[in-house]
Give the backbone structure.
Amino acid sequence: AHIGKLEHDNRFGVLAELRRMYDLLKPGGVMVLQSIVRPERGIPDRWFTDDRVVESGVFPGSDLPWTKQARGWIRQAGFVIEEEDEQGHGYARTTSAWYDNFARIPDAVIARAAAARGFSLAECKRYWPLYLAGVSVQFQLGLIGLMRWKLRKPR
């Protein structure tokens, strides 16, 4: 299984990484790939800006691919898509739970994570709940999605 590869490596050679995974599988081998994507009816490009909060602290290196774009990379790498499942509504519950749990994280833990990303404790305590609440709503509305693919390397 590979979780989160496309949304984190979109700018950094995702096709090369997919081909590397393909090469690691035996002929007939199967893998599962899961990634956050933008459905074709999802968030327009103009909503993705050079936001310091999201880019450097919350979701570094991210660039959500369109679902169609991700399918193209998968096929271009040589995989056959055997199953495809959109699970964004379920992930909305996950991110909502993360939002609810965030308030229970000790400040010392948040401060270490914030410092590693160049934020103060106050900034992190302000940005993360906003981010988690926002993505929860986006998953609920179908503006972003969570795709899970079962892929096979042909024999």
Q: What stands out?
A: The two ends are 19 Å apart (CA to CA). The longest strand covers residues 30-37.
